Amino acid sequence: MLSAKRVTRRTSLTETSPRDQAYYAVTAFATAEEYNLEKLATDVVQYGYHIVQMPEDAFDALHVEAKTLNSSGPRHIFFFREGSIVFWNVNDSEQSEWLKRVDCHEEGPYDDTVTLEEQETLEFTYSSNQSRLRSGAIELYEPAAADVVVVDNSVQQLDMFAFSNALSLSVKLAIWETKLAEYVDSIEWVLEDLKDGKKIRMSEDDVLRKAGELYTLSHLINLSSDLLDTPDFYWDREKLERLYNKTCNYLNIARRTRVMNEKLGQCLELTELLRDHLKDKHHTRLELMIIALITIEVCFAIFHMVERYYFGKDKSDVD
After folding, report:
1. What is the pLDDT of residue 4?
2. Looking at per-residue confidence, does 249 or 16 come out higher?
3. Cα separation, 125 vs 140, whole angstroms
4. Disulfide engineering: 141 pairs with which of 57, 80, 131, 132, CB 3.0-4.6 Å?
């Protein structure tokens, strides 16, 4: 069986960065079509986390931080309304617990196996310089103790948000890539039948449902997500926009989206071909039925003519 090929999820890099300090994991998952963030916000406190205030225009994200530190430092989690979750310095067992906790806040949950397979992981470390993505690793700004000023929406938090936003977009796209690959596999037998000149074993309703799947996926990618454009949040935050765009470029989001749309276009052309073919067959059947009815009517007319001719002649002879 031939499966749809997928674009590599990361841009190849030639530069390397020194590893003279500790690195930690930032991991993203997509678990559902959408989260109920308002309900989720009321539940996080009982799990040993507190909500970190976000800017008002970041209303589609929820940032929480663990109340206690572990040996490797603070632990952060970003929840995004579109159904993705990003962990900063959270170990595997705690991640698993959170993936179970969000179940009751999900709308349109994904299969757990797909969620785990399509996760995205980067490494990050702390730096006294400005935050950046270098050699596929995040260097996160951490001010010196003497420079720390307690303010809402700290520089570090917003930098983490920009990186997390790009990661959440990548895992959502990965889920949709998987769905498209499954769709291509599901119609492969149709292509084989077309190639071999066999009768199409699909009804118009089946084709319509298949087309509906494609249009739904296209809607999610092109209209309901930020895959085609930079979110409004970054319009007046140039530094954060650079971090977001560089991470998106590293994760190949623009190219993967373009390839997805090209594949969707090809699949839509196939469904249109099938619909046109089935319509032609339907029209042909109707024409044949009409021809058959006309033929029957002509036969009856001929029969009546013959009947009148012979029986009418016999009657006149008797008279």
Report:
1. 58
2. 249
3. 6
4. 131
Tokens of 157: 């938090």
Per-state percent for the chain, helix, strand, coil, to nearest 5? 55, 15, 30
Query: What's the chain's Rg over C-alpha atoms?
Result: 31
Phi–psi pair at 98, nearest 5 degrees: -70, -35
Strand order from edge to edge, sheet including 84-88: 49-52, 61-66, 76-80, 84-88, 24-30, 120-127, 137-141, 132-134
Six token digits for residue 71: 């040996």
Instruction: DSSP letter for 46, please.
Output: G
Place of tokens 């276009």: 265
The H or E element containing residue 24 is strand 24-30
Q: Which pLDDT does position 94 carry in this prediction?
A: 94
The kind and range of the H/E element at 179 are helix 155-186
Q: 127-177: per-residue pLDDT in tens?
A: 888 999 998 899 998 876 544 444 434 788 999 999 999 999 999 999 999
For 11, the token pair is 């841009």
8-state DSSP, 16: -
Three-state DSSP at 77 gives: strand
Structure tokens at 164: 């997390």
Q: How far apart are CA 170 and CA 121, in angstroms?
A: 11
Amino acid identity of residue 52, one-letter, is: V
Residue 202 has phi, psi (to 5 degrees) of: -135, 145
- Give the Cα separation of 301 and 295 in Å (integer): 10
User: What is the per-residue pLDDT across 47-80, written as a single tens digit (0 to 9) for each?
Assistant: 889 999 999 899 899 999 998 887 778 999 999 9
Encode pLDDT of 99-121 as tens digits. Answer: 999 999 999 999 999 999 999 99
Structure-block tokens of residue 289: 């039925």
Domain ranges of the chain: 24-152, 172-282
